[in-house]
From TrEMBL, chain A:
Residues 1-21 form the signal peptide. Keywords: Membrane, Oxidoreductase, Signal, Transmembrane, Transmembrane helix. The lineage of its organism: Eukaryota, Metazoa, Chordata, Craniata, Vertebrata. It is a multi-pass membrane protein. This is NADPH oxidase 4. Residues 42-172 form the Ferric oxidoreductase domain. GO terms for molecular function: superoxide-generating NAD(P)H oxidase activity. The chain crosses the membrane at residues 72-93, 121-145, 157-178. It comes from Dissostichus mawsoni. CDD domains: NOX_Duox_like_FAD_NADP. Residues 351-476 form the Ferric reductase NAD binding domain. Pfam families: Ferric_reduct, NAD_binding_6.
From TrEMBL, chain B:
GO terms for cellular component: plasma membrane. This is Cytochrome b-245 light chain. GO terms for molecular function: heme binding. InterPro entries: Cyt_b558_asu. The chain crosses the membrane at residues 12-30, 36-54, 91-124.
Length: 493, 143
């Protein structure tokens, strides 16, 4: 709401400035409404570009301040597109007016070189024109590749085109150089509209004019015009510097390669990688191994990058090769790890009661060893998978947790599987808790609400859109038990 | 890079360009600028491109997401057979359609955007050799 209000206020303020401001009187006469609309939309664009850059910063400390930054970033992006359309249309009208209403009285005010100059030529031979065209093309590429469908199917296209934003911002800062729009500097010496007064007073020499009025409107000197000082860099350079500093810091931080300790292949195309890094300090919720110095990641092998990575880590043994001596170690690729980044899941420990819902590989943000301590008194863990084999990814961890903290009032585990299959006897604590079919969220929430009356329950979801939409809706609906559910969502794409 | 389905992005771009062309054409005709006939052409060309590109084709691998209500468009497009299915035809068609729009200021943006979409279609052919055609009508709804 604050953002909407800021945009509206800025648009109206700039619009009024250009339509009523004395220093823009002559320019307004030449260009009309197009001037006001284009400048107003430009100031809104400045604001949204700076917010957009700020939302891009993803380091842990700043991300917590800009929570829900992805939605905000998308909102900024959409508004940039909309206002760009408005801005471009208004400026196209301005260019036509510059050409058609070429002013002989005030040659300094003109952008066109002569009356009736082709508007396309004006655009292509001025800095604002050329940079404007480039900006629109970059925006077009970024916008078309940001659709949900493209992100889902080909994330690389989205990623690489979105990195063009650096080019966008650099060109944006250059966009105003050249000073197409000018304002009048000597308002006292040359009140706007006085030229006409001079001409009319010479025609009506015989008539009596009031002395005061006459003096006010007489021109003392020629009108002087000055182009605007480029303002965009003031808006944009701050967040841009912040972003560059953050990237630099991340580069330094991740310049040490990690040592790969173990590589485990799990069923359903998941690879677990255990690594060791110098100066690594585990934070709450970030250490899924017993040995505190190592940390692990689980990767689902889906695209070409993950497939190639798996081939490098676990090359298929070739039958025709001789068996290598045991002394020769496996050569792993050099791996660099960047992070950690802030995420909503860290808030789990700040609630008395938390519900963590994971869909498939979405369990990874919740996979850690340190669930005890802090404020958390009760944890509900709901894990929904398609196949039974997927539970093997974290079977050891869950069983270890169960052995360590076998308190049903503290750690409540619910496993759902969409398809039936056989499960090994080794993981008995899991088999007895297995539920077939999709969870009935309404009933689950009612049950949690009854056992935790008048408490604030944090709901954390990492999984497909369907689950998170349902959970969000349930969290927002009122409960008779007086329990409030607060929804926090972790997203992957 | 070899596994990226460029045609999907080209489809999004072509649809957006069609809309831009249509809007520019409407502005050009409404303003009665010099050369407004180009704007009238742009309206027709933009509408045609939108109709052609609205059905989203099935992916070679993975789930495909349909656009809302695309079934009737799919039937129309499929009826032209290989003429609309082949990416070479689409690429050159878009390139040809975009040229006349470049003569009027209001539609020049649509021209450039459609040109870019045409280039991406050509890239889709070059990179993904073997997937020269799109398969509409068989796409399933995403889970």
């Amino acid at each position: 709401m604050l953002w909407l209000g800021a945009n509206t206020w800025l648009f109206l303020k700039t619009f009024l400035l250009y339509s009523t401001g004395q220093q823009y009187h002559y320019l307004y006469k030449m260009l009309g409404l197009g001037l006001c609309i284009s400048r107003a939309s430009a100031s809104v664009l400045n604001l949204n570009c700076s917010f957009g850059a700020a939302a891009h910063v993803s380091s842990r400390e700043t991300r917590r301040l800009l929570d829900k930054s992805k939605t905000f970033h998308v909102a900024c992006g959409v508004s940039i597109c909309i206002f760009s359309v408005v801005h471009v249309s208004a400026h196209l009208a301005n260019v036509v007016n510059f050409s058609v209403s070429y002013s002989e009285d005030f040659p300094a005010l003109n952008l066109a070189r002569y009356r009736g100059e082709d508007p396309k030529l004006i655009i292509l031979t001025t800095i604002p024109g050329v940079t404007g065209v480039l900006l629109v093309l970059i925006l077009f590429l970024m916008f078309t590749s940001s659709s949900y469908c493209v992100r889902l199917s080909n994330y690389e296209i989205f990623w690489y085109t979105h990195n063009l934003f650096i080019v966008f911002y650099v060109i944006l800062m250059v966009h105003m150089v050249g000073g197409a729009l000018k304002y009048q500097t000597n308002l006292e010496g040359h009140p706007p509209g006085c030229l006409r007064a001079n001409q009319s007073s010479t025609e009506q020499q015989g008539e009596e004019l009031e002395a005061g009025e006459d003096e006010e409107r007489r021109c003392g000197e020629e009108a002087h015009f000055q182009p605007h000082y480029p303002q965009t860099w003031l808006w944009v350079s701050g967040p841009l510097c912040l972003y560059c500093a953050e990237r630099f810091y991340r580069y330094i931080r991740s310049s040490d390669p990690v040592t790969i300790v173990t590589v485990i292949r799990h069923p359903c195309d998941v690879i677990e990688l255990r690594m060791l890094k110098k100066h690594f300090k585990a934070r709450p919720g970030q250490c899924p191994t017993e040995n505190k110095e190592t940390f692990g990641v689980h990767l689902r092998v889906v695209g070409d990058w993950t497939e190639r990575f798996t081939q490098l880590l676990l090359p298929e043994p070739r039958i025709d090769l001789e068996i290598l001596p045991m002394v020769q170690q496996r050569r792993y690729p050099k791996l660099y790890v960047d992070g950690p980044f802030g995420s909503p899941s860290e808030e789990v420990f700040n609630y008395d009661v938390s519900v963590c819902v994971a869909g498939g590989i979405g369990v990874t943000p919740f996979a850690c060893d340190g669930w005890t301590g802090f404020r958390l008194q009760r944890l509900y863990f709901v894990w929904v998978c398609r196949e039974l084999k997927s539970f093997y990814w974290f079977a050891e961890l869950l069983c270890a947790l169960h052995h360590k903290e076998n308190r049903p009032d503290y750690f409540n585990l619910k496993l759902y599987v969409s398809q039936t299959d056989n499960l090994q006897e080794k993981y008995r604590p899991l088999t007895s808790r297995l539920l077939v079919g999709r969870p009935r969220w309404n009933l689950l929430f009612d049950e949690i609400g009854k056992t935790n009356k008048h408490k604030r329950v944090g709901v954390f979801c990492c999984g497909p859109k369907g689950i998170s939409k349902t959970l969000h809706r349930l969290c927002n609906s009122a409960r008779s038990s007086g329990t409030t559910f607060e929804f926090n969502k972790e997203s992957f794409s | 890079m070899g596994k990226i389905e460029w045609a999907m992005w080209a489809n999004e771009q072509a649809l957006a360009s069609g809309l831009i062309l249509l809007t520019g054409g409407i502005v050009g005709v409404a303003g009665q600028f010099r050369g407004w006939q180009f704007a009238a052409y742009a309206i027709a060309a933009g509408a045609f491109v939108c109709l052609l590109e609205y059905p989203r084709s099935k992916r070679t691998k993975g789930t495909s997401v349909e656009r809302t209500g695309q079934y009737c468009f799919t039937v129309c497009v499929k009826s032209f057979g290989p003429l609309t299915r082949n990416y070479y035809v689409r690429a050159f068609l878009h390139a040809a359609l975009s040229v006349p729009a470049g003569f009027l200021l209001a539609t020049v943006l649509g021209c450039v955007c459609l040109g870019i979409a045409s280039i991406i279609y050509l890239a889709a052919i070059e990179v993904n050799t073997g997937t020269h055609s799109s398969k509409e009508g068989d796409s399933q709804k995403a889970r």
